[in-house]
């Protein structure tokens, strides 16, 4: 059964860069409705810079790849999502010194969620990244505990994240720019929860090969 190793970590970052480029318009549209319309361009710029940073890097393990991506996001993305995803990737990276099976990757992804929550102080239901990331980690963990292989665990996490993102539509935002809209944030899908679902779907795709 495949491990989350250095080539897979690099493939994930490359696939994220391609996915956020492809989905930039949709993410921007969502952020235009309840934010300032830059979520797509923030992520496109950040992950393009992460790819550049990986060029010529000789990573010691999968974690070094993700830590580098995280550091790049923090330095290149001005919006809320840069530091939040940046800290998440750094925490995931720090938890992956070597190739990881599903249970270890579940723990690493959970460390990423902890980092988001420590920095952003958002609770589930606040209409943020946390609303997609929390069910994704739970699904990943449950699959790993049941003995599932990486592609299956990542696929379940992606399904849960997509559901979590859709479930933000009726929520009122309590964190970030969308919270300034109060009740007017209701009825729109959160951009950050949507991009989190994209990250997990991308992981599932690269894990499936
Ligand atoms: P900005 O809001 O600074 O323009 P982005 O548009 O890139 O940054 O990202 C907006 C997304 O960031 C939101 O849709 C939300 O999901 C997420 N977000 C904002 N604040 C928080 C927070 N405190 N915790 C978790 N996620 C947050
Ligand atoms: Mg924005
Ligand atoms: Mg902004």
Automatic annotation (TrEMBL):
One matching Pfam family: Dak2
Boundaries of every DhaL domain copy: 7-205
Coiled coil ranges: none
Keywords: Kinase, Transferase
Cellular component annotations (GO), alphabetically ordered: cytosol
GO process annotations (BP): glycerol catabolic process
GO molecular function, one term: glycerone kinase activity
Signal peptide: none
Keyword Signal in record: no
Cited SMART domains: Dak2
Protein name (database record): Dihydroxyacetone kinase subunit L
Gene name for this UniProt entry: dhaL
């Amino acid at each position: 059964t495949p491990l989350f190793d250095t080539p897979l970590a690099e493939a994930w970052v490359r696939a994220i860069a391609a996915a956020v480029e492809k989905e930039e318009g949709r993410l921007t549209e969502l952020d235009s409705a309840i934010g300032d319309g830059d979520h797509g361009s923030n992520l496109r710029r950040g992950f393009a810079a992460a790819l550049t940073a990986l060029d010529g890097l000789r990573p010691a393990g999968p974690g070094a790849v993700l830590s580098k991506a995280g550091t790049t996001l923090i330095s290149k993305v001005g919006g809320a999502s840069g530091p939040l995803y940046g800290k998440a990737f750094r925490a995931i990276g720090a938890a992956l010194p070597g190739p990881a099976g599903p249970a270890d990757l579940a723990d690493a992804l959970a460390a990423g969620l902890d980092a988001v929550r420590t920095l952003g102080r958002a609770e589930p239901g606040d209409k943020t990244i946390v609303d997609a990331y929390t069910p994704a980690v739970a699904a990943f963990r449950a699959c790993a505990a049941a003995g599932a292989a990486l592609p299956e665990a990542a696929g379940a996490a992606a399904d849960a994240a997509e559901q979590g993102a859709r479930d933000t539509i009726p929520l009122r935002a309590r964190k970030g720019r969308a919270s300034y809209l109060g009740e007017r944030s209701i009825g729109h899908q959160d951009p950050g929860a949507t991009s989190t679902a994209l990250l997990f779907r991308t992981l599932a795709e690269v894990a499936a090969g």
